[in-house]
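Try this one yourself first.
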């Protein structure tokens, strides 16, 4: 574990939790709770994740997954009941009771994404693409470097020809790129959750690995602990860096232990 900013912030959050504050644990999925997989449909969580998150839930922490995936994807991949999921980078929300909120993008921009997906698929039939709420994810996993460069040029050419109005933003993620309609981000999801929490005494943390998680780190700011999961250092808004799966496991175990103390504190 590497402390990137205030060295007192992590122990302060855990102490707050141990004193009975409401725990709110937000996690990205791929690269944080699950390893990256060439076929994203097979990216199951680390073997210890469902049981450990379940224990954390039972100790009173609200567990929320904030992912770039479609929310419904995780209902299949992550066997954990009672979890709240913000999908498509904060553009949809699946509540534990099954209710769902979905942001409504501009219809013309949505049609443009469908057109680009269709035309790219003709030229690159073996490349995996995912249509999500207000965005199109194009995966580079498994492609040789020269094909990645050619594919990126094809994407740039399509945008030049078909998006002269600049309706779409191009955002890189781990081994891919997304074409997004300007709209809600993971940061907006965090701000919405903080607003719902109001003035309640809470201990909040967000764990994420990707560039898109920086929006969430920035939004959380001093209201909680931002945790980057990355094997290598990089410029980030996070407070702490965890290097690998083992360090994520250890952090979540420390969270669980603090939450248990908080439960004991409440029962006294």
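Now uncover the answer:
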């Amino acid at each position: 574990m590497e402390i990137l900013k205030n060295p007192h912030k992590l122990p302060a959050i855990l102490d707050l939790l141990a004193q009975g504050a409401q725990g709110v644990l937000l996690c990205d999925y791929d690269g944080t709770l699950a390893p990256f997989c060439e076929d994203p449909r097979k990216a199951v969580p680390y073997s210890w994740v469902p049981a450990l998150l379940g224990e954390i839930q039972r100790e009173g922490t609200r567990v929320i997954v904030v992912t770039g995936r479609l929310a419904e994807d995780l209902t299949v991949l992550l066997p954990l009941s009672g979890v709240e999921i913000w999908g498509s980078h904060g553009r949809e929300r699946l509540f534990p009771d099954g209710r769902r909120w979905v942001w409504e993008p501009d219809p013309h921009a949505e049609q443009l994404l469908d057109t680009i997906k269709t035309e790219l698929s003709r030229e690159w039939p073996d490349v995996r693409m995912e249509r999500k709420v207000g965005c199109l994810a194009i995966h580079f996993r498994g492609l040789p470097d020269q094909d990645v460069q050619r594919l990126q040029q094809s994407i740039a050419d399509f945008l030049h020809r078909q998006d002269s109005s600049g309706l779409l933003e191009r955002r890189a993620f781990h081994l891919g790129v997304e074409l997004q309609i300007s709209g809600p981000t993971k940061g907006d999801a965090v701000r919405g959750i903080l607003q719902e929490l109001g003035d309640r005494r809470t201990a909040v943390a967000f764990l994420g690995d990707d560039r898109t998680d920086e929006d969430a780190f920035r939004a959380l700011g001093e209201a909680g602990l931002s945790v980057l999961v990355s094997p290598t250092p990089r410029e980030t808004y996070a407070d702490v860096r965890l290097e690998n799966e083992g360090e994520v496991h250890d952090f979540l175990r420390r969270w669980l232990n603090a939450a248990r103390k908080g439960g004991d504190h409440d029962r006294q």
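Discussion: Residues 245-267 form the longest helix (23 residues). The first strand starts at residue 2 and ends at 3.
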